[in-house]
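Known limitations

Files may contain more than one protein. Parsers should not assume a single record per file. Below, a two-record file is shown to illustrate correct handling: read the sequence, read the token line, then continue until end of file.
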Amino acid sequence: MLFLHAADIHLDSPLRGLARYPGLPAERLRLATREAFANLIDLAIGERVDLVVLAGDLYDGEWPDVHTGLTFVAAMTRLAQAGIAAVIVQGNHDAAAKITRALPLPPGVHVLPSDRPATVLIGEHYACHGQSYAVEATVENLAQGYPAPVPGRINIGVLHTALSGRADGHMPYAPCTTQDLMRLGYEYWALGHVHRRQVVESDPPIVYPGNLQGRHARETGAKGAMLVRVIDGRCVPEFRALDVIRWERVEIAARDCPNPDGLRTRLVAAVDALVGAAEGRFLVVRAVVQGADPALAAYLGGEGLDDLRAAVLAIGGVALEKVEVVEAAAIEAEAGDASALAALLHGADPAEEVFADVRRLLEVLPDALKDDPAFAPEALLRTAEAVALAHLSDTST
């Protein structure tokens, strides 16, 4: 028994921030999310899986044109012809109220409803439970309404959620805890919404596969889906890379480079290693030079940038998206700002006015969320601290 779990396809969403950079394959960039989705379908058919589970954000919003919908229908038709079922929940980007157009889908494709949790039985072995978003800003804990497992089947929970402590800067939609999920007794949880791949729990597996195709410089590394084998009633996920364009980040300490030639040599070596690991995928690399003195910063802001781009292009199969320069003085200032912010938030008294302000904001939450630990004023302030510190250490977009 074998099934595929993918999420956050964002079909036809553009790869952002690349129009002004030379050396990039424009057509492949434009079609990257489509190609990655086609790779998913190829994998499903090649591995002869029983089922494909898509855990939300199939689209990036309303279709740019009807070809987006036709692309999806064609992919589902390929699955149907191979005898493979599909189970889908809609997330915040493709919520029922957000996608106004629809095309007929082939038999075997099940889009779970947005007004209630539902269960769909697939063949003799699977029971998939889930609920789509009715609206983008879905803030209630949907998992609390999921049904009991079906005896004798592999029960898969499908949920687009900002699991407590795992949101990674994503909006806190359909928040819940791992305990909420584990107490239901399912054999596997197919999550979506967070774009960084992570196995949150292993028994039972609670898994974010990450998005299928990185779309900007913050979505680095291999992207793909989880191929899940069912062995003696246990689900064992295995990551499979399916992206067609891969984003990577190279950090170089200026103190290790005695001159511009040394910097170029170091960058080329690092990028060359990434190209070798990319298995033929085109790479888009952002270089970050840490601790540059004013002279090096000036060089990298002028002719040095052209020199580095040319050196990277010569490797083949890769382009330098940007060189981000962090001067030594800026590092010292940011470290001071981060320490001050951490001290402020860690030393804050819950009785102070800052907590009172947060509590007033929380009054608009639904009653079901007011007792959720993830929405406690202290927890929200700690989340704000983490986000602020991340931005202080990396202000790139």
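...continuing to the second record:
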Amino acid sequence: MVILNLLLIIIVFAIVIIFIMAVQQPDEFRVTRDIMIDGSPDDVFDHINNLKRQHEWSPWVEMDPDAHYEFDGPEEGEGAIIHWKGDKTGVGKMTIVESNPSKLIRSQLDFQKPMQATNIAEFILEKEGNKTHVTSRMVGPNKFMGKVFGVFMNMQKICGDQFEKGLQNLKAKVEA
């Protein structure tokens, strides 16, 4: 009985510690990566603003090549949509909500599975000489379950690695 009580106290203590750590997590998460690409902002923009072209270098397509993808709306720019359903990538859609030529592409990501979430993804393009500085960023609310997840998993590492891979793939496409 003493061992059972001790075990119960340890479990309750662990839950309290996890709860305290979770509530201290920020209310918003942000993952950002950047890269310099040899090419003009116009060249880079063309590979991002068109979802079929974006599909060619996406690290998520590479990660889940058997996923089902469907395009909707215009082929590029505001209103362009890609839907996906895959074993590794889950279920969701991405809609370009802002397209500022050679400067910014902002998309809304609506994840349905494995968890429901709505985030904003951005590509920011800045001309630097004959190169383009590209910043890839995702921002979203960090609700309680996300905060608990954040106690155990590093979103910067998980998503950041994919962002870096995507930027490297984009760089290879533009510079080819």
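Parsers that stop after the first record will miss the second one. For reference, the second record is described as follows. Strands lie at 28-38, 68-72, 81-86, 90-100, 104-113, 117-128, 131-141.
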